[in-house]
Amino acid sequence: MKAVFEKVDAQDESSIVAFQYSNKNFDAPWHFHPEYELTYIIKSSGTRYVGNNISSYEKGDLVLLGPNLPHCWKNDPKLEENANSLVIQWPKELIKQLPAFRQIEQLLKTSQRGVLFSNTPDEVILNIQKVVAARGVYRLVALLELLDGLGILTQTEVLAGSSYKFDLSSDTNSRIQKVQQYVNENYQSKIRLKEVADELHMTEQSFSRFFSRVMKRPFFIFLNEYRINRASRLLVETEFQVNEIGYKCGYDSLPFFYQQFKKFKGYSPLAFRKMYRKMGD
Description:
Blueprint: E1 4-5, E2 17-23, E3 31-32, E4 36-43, E5 46-50, E6 53-57, E7 62-65, E8 71-75, E9 83-90, H1 102-110, E10 115-117, H2 122-133, H3 136-151, E11 156-158, H4 170-186, H5 193-199, H6 204-215, H7 219-237, H8 242-248, H9 254-265, H10 269-280
Parallel strand pairs: 1-3
Antiparallel strand pairs: 2-9, 4-7, 4-9, 5-6, 5-8, 7-10, 10-11
């Protein structure tokens, strides 16, 4: 499958698309579009891809994406409830450069690499709902109010790396999507470079150079990021023992699992689990 160019059609004269999505899965492929996009997850959890960033997502996830930034959300197939989100998309020409909009302009500039908002205030969520409910000029006013509120939030994370360049060629994105799919289906087993390269009909050397050039990191770092994100979800959501989780996520060496977990999460697996359970008390 190729990376999809998504054509966004405005719903009214405001030029803003805003809607609630509900389906069994987030079925959009790895795709891009020239509009800005704000996505709030009402229900669902899984893996989020933004540029060269790979992260877990869950209920309450709020991400702002700049134009032509490849992205997709892949929910955990074991979830029984529908994937549910609020989505707002608007053209980059909509908001003009005015002194009063400097804070918004800075936010939109940062969104070129994707912005994740943490601990989003209830007021912001209400403003997202207002944009979805409004029509015409009222929708534009509601969007400006929403973006102004987002611009003052300090608990944010930039997602794609600073060196990431957006290669939008269909061949490149098709290959990256195949890699994502292969890792998603095989991460619990030992993955060899040759197996992934064969999926793309490339030599190991060619695949390694290609992946590092596009994603700005070697394939096995990407693979370990994916596995550790899966492990972190199991630590939070299940009662599996830590060692069992390591094996379930494809690690046959527990010391290496512990090393990689500390590298990507900053905590040992057990400390990570305790921290999240304390937050839920």
